[in-house]
Amino acid sequence: MYDQTKEFLSVLRKYYAIRSNNAKASRETLVNELTSTAERKKNYESMRLRYTNESVTNMVENSNDASRIVEWRGRLVQKYYPIYFDDHRPRNRFDFQANFFVPTKFFLGNTFDTFYFNLVVIWSMTLLLYLALYFDLLKRLVHAFEIRWKYRKKNT
Question: Which of 98 and 111 is assigned the larger pLDDT?
């Protein structure tokens, strides 16, 4: 069993090394293409400086933390680069809880892009609150509790 596990981990390490090398090569190709001339390099640097925030990058990547993997509730959890961690194990079909900054949300058995999922949630809550204001639901709810409280005190 030990030898099989060792072999499996070796193959897994090679697989992810190849994927990492391919991703790095792809990034290098893209950066080289964007910086091929002096003018393009100047544009690339100005864009990088304009749109990069080191504090946000450090927070999202959690690159300053010394512990990269921790054990939590009997599971190993990756703390390094949590933005790329997309493994979500929902407790039920309505569990859309996910790590901070993950790219997808799991809801009703499907995976949704976080941006669009959040937009739908915000707009549905806006619609719900609009309907509550339009039909005076808060006033009716307070009045119902007030009446219930008044009659409850008289009966006891």
Answer: 111
